[in-house]
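Worked example 4.2. Below are the chains of a multi-component assembly; read each line carefully before continuing.
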Amino acid sequence: MAIPAVETIGLTRRFGDKVAVDSLDLQVAEGEFFGFLGPNGAGKSTTINMLVGLLRPTAGRALINGIDIWQNPLPAKQQLGVLPEGLKLYERLSAKEFIAFAGTMYGLGETEVRDRTAELLALMDLEEDADKLIVDYSTGMRKKTALAAALIHAPRVLFLDEPFEGIDAISGRAIRNVLQQLRQKGTTIFFSSHILEVVERLCTRVGVIAEGRLVAAGTIPELRELAHAGEATTLEDLFLEAVGAREDAFEGGLSWLR
Amino acid sequence: MAALGLDATRLKALLRTRARLTLRQFLRERGRIVGLLLSLFLFVPLILGAAVGTAIGYFTLPDPWPAQLLGIVLVALWLAWIALPLVAFNLNEGMDLTRLLVYPIARRDLVAAMILGTLFDYPTYFMLPLFLAILVGWGGTVALPVVLLALLLGYGQMIFSSQLLLAAAGGILSSRRFRDVAIILTALLGSSCYLLQQAAAELFSRYISPEQLQTLRPLLLLQWLPPGAAARAIERATAGAWPAALVWLLYATVWTLLLGWIWWRLTLRLVTGGGFLLNLPARSPRPRAAAAEPAEHPGRRPFAWLPADVAALSKKELQTAWRTPRRRVALLQGLFMPLALAGFVLFSGGIPDAFPPWLGLTLPFYALFSTWMIAQNSLGWEGQGLSTLLLTPVPRARICRAKGLALGILGLLPILPLGVVMLVLVPSTFTIAGLLAAFAAVLVALGVTGVASVLFPFPVRLEGARTQTRTGGGCVSGLANGLLVPAAVGILSFPLILPLGLSYWFELPALSLAGSALGILYGLALFWFGTGWAGRLLQQREPEVIEATRLPDEE
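Applying the procedure described above to all two chains together yields the following structure tokens:
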């Protein structure tokens, strides 16, 4: 059996009494475009942070292409590209400097760094502002810069936490095309988003997490089958069903508007 | 309140929100409490001293100086209040009227809430003792109602003026470029106080004679400014010249209303999309062709002799150190030492015949101190970028060594000119040995601070106001960085200092040179060992270091 690109075994994280991620067992095969969904506070970002080595798990293991990132962090990180939840950038570098810096950190050669940086700046429509400091960027520009830095070394596994939030439609289209291209080249993409239409359009498989537990996983047809739902059932319906959201919760509406 | 046409319920709600936001600022960032205590400790004696001094002045100075002093105090307070947002643009969000204008609140309620809300800003309390001194000095007569009214007008003028400045030039004040310059200039002005004071005293004594001083009447000019008019009204009322006092009061009232009206118009302009009145000129975008230049490989030029990742890391460290205003301030302040030394010589009547021969031997101590200042908490100074750095597969010891290399260059920057100045002042073998030992001291300090940065990191607000440097980090890290690390640096520097001391004592200059040369080897070994150890520790503690350097509002 092939080694999964991303695997968690009993992955758990507690913050005091609160269990943010509870014994999560998950496998993402190589080349998959995996959508990781869940309501706010469900444990998505906590899981991603543990998978990329930024947050120590309380228990369990996190493996990247079979390498335990907590036992053997550097070889595992060599294979990763990460767009984290909060954009963690060097505010006093320009986008050009930052992307080139990231490329060098992943061991790219001088020519590769130069060419890929120029290409990424063009793709993200950042050429005009390439020499401006990141501290002066808008949220969308910061996100595009972080994404460019995550892509420069053509990672084998790409973690994207809300990549389309704050991105305009033109850049969004360009990024979607790049992600499709990466997937065709065999890159595994672990993708967390609240925009379910995008997830439905891009992802080959979906996992739903609620209160730290994986409550559903599979392709969209598989999820429909599990939920005994018809062809017309959208991912949003399946998601709400999986997380147990009550449709009648606000049926009555607001008391003073009745 | 109803008599004044104010809505008590709304006003209470506004003030309660203001109080809550102020309190939460302190509770969320404990570092602010430390900042407050520190500023109380520093400024309260100064302010109280100034209040008592001016009160005594009002009673004891010969005429016409009490009135002149009153004018100077009121105008100085007004200017200080206006300057406050310039040096520390940090608007309490409860004070931000633009957020309130969406609600149906009457203008008078907003203005009343804004004026009363200043009572929640602690700088207000730095001003009150001086107002109280005016009341004591001038209020003990039948002119008391005029004094009270004039002080109220003066207070209103201060608040309206600073608000007016914020509403007119908030775009500039909140711009990154202005904040950067303000942080650097304020810090450098603070550092150069001694030099400025000496220069001012020299100029004053040279160009203004005691006779000229006696005929000076600053209030004649100051009276035309808003708070100067209030001062003149008080002076006239105390002299029994009631009609003149009323005219000046009227003039001060016109000023207050005018400032208030302009502020209101600018605020309305702001919330209705008109933007700030004054803005920095926008930088013209670079033409696409120019922007499409290929990216320079990071680190190639200055560090071509190093492995690419180490070179890129070192270059990044130097770039961010220079571009982050607080770090630049630390670098520039380091360069002040040679200037201060030159200034001391200049203002104390020229170069003395002989400096003590041991002067050059103080260089390693200065190197230890300046490097410790620059290199402590080096991971905290990464800011948000630390997570990005630790996502990369670069061996952690290389990261620590690359940072050490860059910080070493920065640590040496002030040492070199200082060394040159000392070699000119005291040309001796001991000075050369001191300079060599200073290089070694930089290496020792880097080895120790490299390890300490991993063990005791704390968060730093890189983009905040000048007054908020350290933001949390806990007691252990505070004590460790304040006591343990300097102690470790001191103890580990002993092998450097001892040969210097012995050679000076026994008058053996050659020994000092040999000791310093060996000291450099010792420093290199300590640097290599310290940064290697720091790298191993970092690999084990990455999530904990990220957590420890995270700002409260990033959680």
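Take a moment to check your reading of the output against the notes. Residues 326-337+360-554 of chain B form one domain. Chain B touches chain A through 44 residues (CB under 8 Å).
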